[in-house]
Amino acid sequence: MIMTSAQVNIETAPFLEIKGLEKAYTPGNLILKGIDISIVESGIVAIIGPSGTGKSTLLRCINRLIDPTAGQIIFDNMDLCKARGQQLRKLRRQVGMVFQEYNLVERLTVIENVLTGRLGYMSSLAAWRRKFSQQDINTAFELLDAVGLTEHAKKRADSLSGGQRQRVGIARAVMQNPRILLADEPTSSLDPKTAVEIMELLERFAQQKNIPALVNIHDVSLASRFAKRIIGMSDGKIVYDGSPDGITDDHLKQIYGGESWLV
Ligand SMILES: Nc1ncnc2c1ncn2[C@@H]1O[C@H](COP(=O)(O)OP(=O)(O)OP(=O)(O)O)[C@@H](O)[C@H]1O
């Protein structure tokens, strides 16, 4: 049962509409058990829930790193679940992904990592030769400046700290000029101060670009601080969908189970 519903302005076409989404990695063992989400707002939407409840699976279905078992994911007027080949490539380049462990190419420089965000827009040959346009190079430097890493542009990615790497990961995702950002536990490997800075950065880009950012996050207080909307998942289903202010201890008990951890 969904305990609260986010207000949806039906006159605004959703950025993303997920209907009846199911995912089973092995036949008969549903991990996602019928997910319905309509994202009409820009800014951060936080997805919370216990380990193993399917949060990463949900994001991986949206960017089609994995194939959903059933349901629809309507994005840019197309069903991502049905997209194949060139069509899928076009849709995926509009979905910027930020990973917990950054997923940078460690041996490449910081600026080269940011530029890889453009690969989906280039011909295979140009991508293979890493032949980026001057405009892309300018944009990459602007983004590096925006994330505060200009002086690190020519350093190898593996020489950066975790927080700096995540900034590169975000700049790379924004380099795609995405219509939505997905972030899978982007702060879990970071200290609390750096985690806040990363959330600030995601929020800033989401607002500037007027796009939503779906963020899987374990830290409920961080989620409440930055998200306009919180989606609480439990056992592969949505059990809360509403404003951070509306979350009560009862909701948290329903999402995470038990109560001994609540202080
Ligand atoms: N590739 C896979 N093959 C089989 N089962 C998988 C695969 N990936 C995830 N699972 C299972 O799906 C369930 C949901 O995993 P998922 O990573 O989506 O959860 P999560 O809510 O993101 O957890 P966490 O917060 O710990 O990252 C888990 O039981 C997990 O073992």
From TrEMBL:
It comes from the Bacteria. Its main location: membrane. It is a peripheral membrane protein. It comes from Reinekea forsetii. Pfam families: ABC_tran (PF00005). The keyword Nucleus does not apply. Residues 16-260 form the ABC transporter domain. Keywords: ATP-binding, Cell membrane, Membrane, Nucleotide-binding, Translocase, Transport. This is Phosphonate ABC transporter ATP-binding protein. The keyword Methyltransferase does not apply.
